[in-house]
Design goal:
Blueprint: H1 18-21, H2 31-46, E1 67-75, E2 78-84, E3 91-93, H3 102-114, E4 132-139, E5 146-152, H4 160-170, E6 174-181, E7 193-198, E8 203-207, E9 210-214, H5 224-238, E10 245-249, H6 255-263, E11 267-272, H7 275-287, E12 293-297, H8 300-309, E13 316-319, H9 328-337, E14 341-346, H10 349-361, E15 364-372, E16 382-389
Length: 393
């Protein structure tokens, strides 16, 4: 597996919104410089535990985001769409982004231009009035299927059929359209009520030779090329054996666990707090012929405490927590259940270092650390870490 990008990128990519948006923190560097910067950062934070392998970069580090989300606002009597400026709720007008899927950007701009002809405006956060809050577009990298989610301030959708007809006529590639109703004063994008306007309400994609169903609210990695690298590394680090009991914590739609079960005959248990993602995980297991798998909707920390109380010890634990890292309930119960091997997938090296310090003080040692550049041109870096019980050879 190549650990250096084949194609060399020049310094920056000339984005005119670089200073306004703040999303591409490292755009002033060439891609090679970005990788070096991230490598140094990983060594600084994680080198205390073991040798940090060379970061795996992308061959083509542009337009990799297959999930594109745009906020809509009324500004000066016109509807604009784009991204929130860093550390604010101000929307920066975006027509094209060097990181986002190009077709997704085209769909969002078309919807923005379509609104006035239907006398539909953007939602106003202050008054709670208006129609469109956000548009979310997800595209299957392998399948090519496209989902459009229209997040609206109310269920009322004037001239809905005509609107859909215009949208689908302009983009026949769209395979499903969902209306997500969010009338709450919240920073959360999606609402609790979903109405399928066209298609099945989900898309499917292939990852690590497995098929996955993706619903509007399900977590699914945004960079499919590097996700394959990330998951294959995680499965390799797990050193799976036939019959192993494997817990996939923070499992989302079951991607890591199902890919592992496809590679080895294991007993898989997944736990995830998002109910929609759990439904997708159950479906995905059936879709891929994985019979020895169970998925539970629960907090990962509480679930592990229950396992510890039942003395139900998994052989391997995959953990892929959010940026805040794992909570202490989960880490304490992990130490108590004492699986032989732990594979920690992290998108935040600082919280990863914090959690590794706890685990290393409580019977584990770090054996491998592999950084993967999942988000080129940003300061985020993903790491796969392998831990073993200190008394296990």
């Amino acid at each position: 597996m190549s650990k250096k990008p084949i194609k060399k990128e020049g310094r920056g990519n000339g984005c005119p919104l670089y200073k306004k948006c703040g999303g591409c923190q490292l755009q002033n560097m060439s891609y090679e410089e970005q990788l070096s910067f991230k490598q140094v950062r990983c060594i600084r934070e994680l080198g205390q535990f073991c040798h940090v392998e060379e970061i795996i970069g992308m061959e083509k580090p542009l337009h990799y985001r297959n999930k594109v989300q745009a906020a809509f606002r009324n500004v000066g009597g016109k509807v604009i769409s784009g991204v929130y400026q860093s550390a604010s709720h101000k929307v920066v007008l975006v027509d094209k982004c060097f990181l986002e899927d190009e077709q997704a950007d085209e769909i969002i701009v078309y919807i923005r231009k379509l609104l006035p002809s239907f006398r539909l405006g953007a939602y106003n956060e202050d008054t709670g009035r208006g129609f469109l809050r956000h548009v979310l577009v997800r595209r299957g990298f392998s399948s090519g299927q496209i989902m459009v989610v229209l997040v609206t301030g109310s269920e009322l959708f004037p001239k809905k059929k005509d609107f859909l007809s215009r949208l689908l006529s302009a983009f026949p590639q769209i395979t499903t359209v969902v209306q997500s109703v969010n009338n709450a004063r919240t920073s959360l994008v999606l609402g609790k009520k979903e109405i399928v306007l066209f298609g099945n309400g989900y898309i499917e994609d292939t990852l690590c030779s497995c098929r996955f169903r993706i619903s509007p609210s399900s977590f699914y990695q945004i960079n499919p090329v590097q996700t394959e690298v990330l998951y294959k590394t995680a499965i390799d680090f797990a050193c799976l054996r036939k019959g192993d009991s494997v817990l996939d914590a923070y499992c989302g739609t079951g991607t890591i666990g199902i890919a592992a079960a496809k590679a080895k005959e294991i007993q898989l248990t997944g736990v995830e707090l998002n109910e929609s993602a759990v439904r997708d995980a159950v479906f995905n297991a059936r879709l891929n012929g994985i019979k020895n798998a169970e998925f539970f909707c629960a907090d990962a920390g509480s679930f592990m405490l229950d396992l510890a109380a039942q003395n139900a010890k998994p052989d391997v634990v995959f953990m892929d927590p959010p940026r805040a890292g794992s909570d202490m309930n989960f880490l304490r119960s992990l130490v108590e259940t004492a699986p032989e091997r732990v594979v920690y997938v992290s998108c935040n090296v600082e919280t990863l270092a914090r959690d590794l310090r706890f685990l290393c003080k409580n019977g584990y040692s770090v054996k491998k650390i592999q950084p993967v550049d999942m988000f080129p041109h940003t300061n985020h870096v993903e790491c796969v870490t392998m831990l073993k019980k200190t008394n296990v050879l």
